[in-house]
From TrEMBL:
It holds the Pfam family MFS_1. The keyword Transport applies. The keyword Transmembrane helix applies. This is EmrB/QacA subfamily drug resistance transporter.
């Protein structure tokens, strides 16, 4: 029995390796964007697709891999994800032009989607319900570590080893992760059900079209031909997806999960939380630049957010195991809302410490919210649907990121133009516009608190 207890944490260590790769890679690649414009002699619009294609593919494929994980087994998909991510990273380091870089980032995203969709499923299948929150909290802590060390590691690699190093650094991590996962993660047989290729294809198309519309509509113009086409494609494929899922014997997504209050309100809360979070994380670097902080100082300031998540997430998981998710996640969302409203009170004379403690409060709120919320969603799902539940959480996170960035950009840009139309000085217009965006993000968090409060309080039981 003691050995079995020890093995659980060894298995978690294998999941942590996969969980930390994505955040490190994403933050490093974002830092390298200006470098790519120079190296490949292209413009910012084209280079933005290095990140955009990754986000679109990851978000649109996670539900498919969640379903495949339930059928084929979580270990297989997780291992395939590590291999795909590692091999594509190696090829990325040899990119000869921007088009090769974008195409290989799409393939790398396929591996990332496998990893993200399987991590929570493996943890939930291995840990008993009374330790699930603690384990998910440690996994969340690893993501925070990735986000915290990514910018520093990326700056070092870019300065001393060149841009290819930001990709081939993933290879040894991925190989070690694969060997470790293959050795310690237990096999699970999956369920004897058929895969639904049509539903999977329609889901990919409708979500990719929607995210493309949300993320690029402001650039194209909301009433432009590309925007109208992408929104029309979203509606068509959504209708086809719903019709298909209601007809086939083994649908890709089990709509009966929406009958579970903790699942439905849990993934809704995740969506709202990441909308608020990425409104903040997208806009704050612009604020720091406006206030005159160097890139190095801005990185230190921004680290206060994931640093607090690193400290608080495991503690939040332990409390979730003891008291359930309802009150904790509601309280965490309200703390996040408070931090965002406090961000809206910053002025051009605010010292560095004033920004950091506000971001630290935001990190505390997010840590208190996320781990109990994730634990409740995973704990509410039947054992044969853990892959879909895990993928649903991951999908909502990514969709929330896209919506948050799009909303932040739209509010800030439109309000800045509106204030400047009244001949206000740029610095006053800038601060007013960014404050209004923070307030909207705070409202997202308040709504998140409400959706967290109205769901069931899951403690240590799970529906099998």
């Amino acid at each position: 029995m003691a050995q079995k207890q020890y093995n659980k944490w060894i298995i978690l260590s294998a999941v942590v390796i996969g969980s930390i790769m994505g955040p490190i890679d994403g933050s490093v690649v974002n830092l390298a964007m200006p470098e790519f414009t120079k190296i490949f002699h292209t413009n910012i619009t084209t280079v933005s697709w290095v990140s955009m294609i990754y986000l679109l593919v990851v978000s649109s494929l996670m539900m498919t891999f969640g379903r495949l994980g339930d059928i084929l087994g979580y270990k297989k998909l997780y291992e395939y994800g590590l291999l795909t991510f590692s091999i594509s990273s190696l090829i990325l380091s040899f990119s000869v032009n921007i088009h090769m870089l974008i195409i290989m980032r799409a393939i790398q995203a396929v591996g990332a989607a496998m990893l993200m969709s399987m991590s929570s499923a493996i943890i939930t299948s291995v840990f008993p319900p009374n330790e699930r929150g603690k384990a998910l909290g440690i996994n969340a802590m690893s993501i925070s570590i990735g986000l915290a060390i990514g910018p520093t590691l990326g700056g070092f690699l870019l300065k001393y080893l060149g841009w290819p190093s930001i990709f081939y650094i993933n290879v040894p991590i991925g190989v070690i992760g694969y060997i470790w996962a293959h050795t310690v993660v237990p096999e699970n047989k999956g369920v004897p059900e058929k895969f639904d290729p049509y539903g999977s294809t329609y889901f990919f198309m409708f979500l990719a079209s929607l995210l493309l519309f949300i993320s690029e509509g402001g650039t194209w113009g909301w009433y432009s031909v590309p925007s109208i086409f992408s929104f029309a494609a979203f509606l068509v494929f959504l209708i086809l997806f719903i019709r298909t899922e209601n007809k086939v014997e083994f649908p890709m997504f089990d709509f009966s999960l929406f009958k579970i209050r903790s699942f439905t309100f849990g993934i809704t809360s995740t969506l709202l939380n990441f909308m608020a979070q990425y409104t903040m994380t997208f806009l704050t670097p612009f604020l720091l630049k406006h206030l005159g902080y160097s890139t190095e100082k801005a990185g230190i300031i921004m680290t206060s957010f994931p640093a607090m998540m690193f400290i608080v997430a495991p503690l939040s998981g332990i409390l979730a195991d003891m008291y359930g998710a309802q009150i904790l996640s509601t309280f965490g969302a309200l703390i996040s809302a408070l931090a965002l409203f406090l961000m809206a009170t910053l002025t051009e004379k605010s010292p560095m410490f004033d920004i950091m403690w506000r971001l630290a409060i935001f990190g505390i709120g997010n840590a208190i919210f996320q781990t109990p919320n994730n634990s409740a969603v995973m704990g509410s799902a039947p054992k044969n649907r853990l892959g879909i539940a895990s993928a649903s959480l991951a999908t909502m996170r990514n969709v929330g990121m896209v919506i948050g960035i799009a909303v932040a950009g739209a509010i800030f840009t439109n309000r800045l133009k509106a204030y400047q139309a009244f001949n206000l000085p740029y610095n006053i217009s800038f601060m007013r516009a960014i404050k209004e965006a923070y307030i909207v993000a705070g409202i997202f968090s308040v709504i998140c608190a409400f959706t967290s409060l109205v769901r069931d309080n899951i403690k240590i039981q799970r529906k099998d």
